[in-house]
Amino acid sequence: MPLIDIANIRVAYGDPPKPVLDGINLQFKEGEFICLLGQTGCGKSTLLRLLLGSEQPCGGRVLIDGREHHQPDRTRGYVPQKYSLFPDKTVLDNITFGAECSEFGLFQCLTPRYFRRRREFRAQAMDYLRRIGLRETDAAKYPDQLSGGMQQRVAIAQALLTQPRILLMDEAFSALDPGTRRGMQQLIRDLWRETGTTIVFVTHNTQEALFLGSRVIVLAKETPDSGSRVAIDLHLPDACDEDEIPNLVRRLERVSHNLPEAEDAVHAVR
């Protein structure tokens, strides 16, 4: 059984309804790094929200471990494009906030178990802080004392602390400068290899998708008024030769509506 089964998903917005996704069928195995590509408005972020459980389809089903999920939970971490950290909380408190809230209710915060788990969460947060490349002294800082790249690292640590089986990332690096973005790409790729977390990563950058993903899925509309469908579904080799990625980008974009040629382009870098 696949970890994620997306079965004939249809989504439409507006009155009269305008289709966004139409007949999406995909299956994701545990441990895959899936990159979703496509032009603005093709439904990449919509599909991510369906996986998160914060939105429901007009038709079809999204199954995770064989079950539908109608709201977010700890099995799915989420890193949005415009990450938001609490400005009045330290880095350490920001990282632990989600895990603490999901495990304890309002009236459980004075129990011995709460304080024990809180210490455990903070120890794990410090470990993630080191793993994402920040210093222990950064734990006491506030978000406005961090650069954009450092804040994004904190947002990733915040999502990872709940130890989700699935990590959803929506254009998570798009606002970063090229140098910082490259560093964050390498970081998330290393964390994926280390943890085995299933990652679904939305991007409009073909080169980024090929560098990061073990699988690249392109969503596209057949006509301007139709909903998006899966145009390309490529399983990539374990590691693309970085020198070949620019050439593969050109070939992939040129044959974006011709799956056999796209598969040939991928085989060329094996």
How would you explain this protein's 3D organization?
It is a single chain. With 270 residues, the chain is of the alpha/beta class. The chain folds into two domains: 1-75 and 165-270, 3-Layer(aba) Sandwich (Rossmann fold), CATH 3.40.50; 84-163, no CATH class. It is 37% helix and 23% strand. It contains eight helices and ten strands. It has helices spanning 44-52, 91-103, 112-131, 148-161, 178-195, 206-212, 245-254, 259-267, and strands at residues 4-13, 18-28, 33-37, 59-64, 67-68, 76-79, 166-170, 198-202, 215-221, 228-235. The strands form two sheets. Strands 6-7-8-3-9-10 form a six-stranded mixed sheet, sandwiched between helices. Strand 4 and strand 5 (67-68) form a beta hairpin. Helix 2 crosses helix 3, helix 3 crosses helix 4 and helix 6 (206-212) packs across helix 7 (245-254). The protein is globular, with a radius of gyration of 19 Å. The two termini are 28 Å apart. 33% of the residues are buried.
How would you summarize the topology of this molecule?
Elements: E1 4-13, E2 18-28, E3 33-37, H1 44-52, E4 59-64, E5 67-68, E6 76-79, H2 91-103, H3 112-131, H4 148-161, E7 166-170, H5 178-195, E8 198-202, H6 206-212, E9 215-221, E10 228-235, H7 245-254, H8 259-267
Parallel strand pairs: 3-8, 3-9, 6-7, 7-8
Antiparallel strand pairs: 1-2, 1-4, 4-5, 9-10
